[in-house]
Write a structure and sequence with these properties.
Blueprint (H helix, E strand, L loop, with lengths): L1 H15 L15 H12 L29 H12 L2 H6 L7 H17 L6 E9 L17 E9 H4 L5 H15 L8 H14 L8 E2 L2 E2 L29 E2 L5
Parallel strand pairs: 1-3, 4-5
Antiparallel strand pairs: 1-2
Length: 253
Amino acid sequence: TQGVSSAASDVYKRQELIPCFDRTLIKDPEGLDVVYANHWLAFQSDKRSLKLVSMPVLKAHSSVVRKSFELTREDMKKLRDKVQGNEVLIRKAKELHLSSYVLTCAYVYVCLVKAMGVEGDAPVMLRVGANCRSRLDPPLSVNYFGNCVSGHGTPAKVSDVVDPENGIAFVADKLSDLVKGLKREVIEGSEEKILNFLKYVKEGGGQAPGRLLGVAGSNRFDVFGSDFGWGKPKRVEIILDRVGSIYLVEGRN
């Protein structure tokens, strides 16, 4: 029995490694593909063009600097304690989703807005990306290979984000609500989401400085688990040369 069970497990694992390219598995009864296409076309500056084109290519300035920052386990504990001990959130008495992802994004977003020098009540959009495969109805298998990621954002004011006492806790609270909201229907309100996204991008002239904050990557991609016969990587660096770009990966250890 053990031998049969082990063999079945091996077959299942091999099947998981075979990419699935079947786009018909994604059901779109609301016709969101057409809605997205129409809004994107309306966003294009050249109204004569009927082609769907990507966002403008942003060339890196010659003075751009790329830097990696490591948050240790102790750093994460300090961030969590800081957020959980925030008096404003204590008075709200709400349960927060304080994952490493949320805490890291909260900290980095506050630092980024401060570095941009944006002040006052200027609007910013705090965004997270979500893997939709397991959140669709019906869900997709883990080996589905394709773009099945959605962006979710919440508006905020710069003054709240950079507040010296409550900024990180404020952003963590906002991001916590976004992540918890993903437990519901992930497609819900999609048309409104794309409209808000395009609005912020358009107001920022393509780059949306100080307006649109998002992070690429994840601390669950296991990039340091890659082994091409040379052993565990000593360093993994993601090349992002757009101003204000952030990429998140797990630490080597």
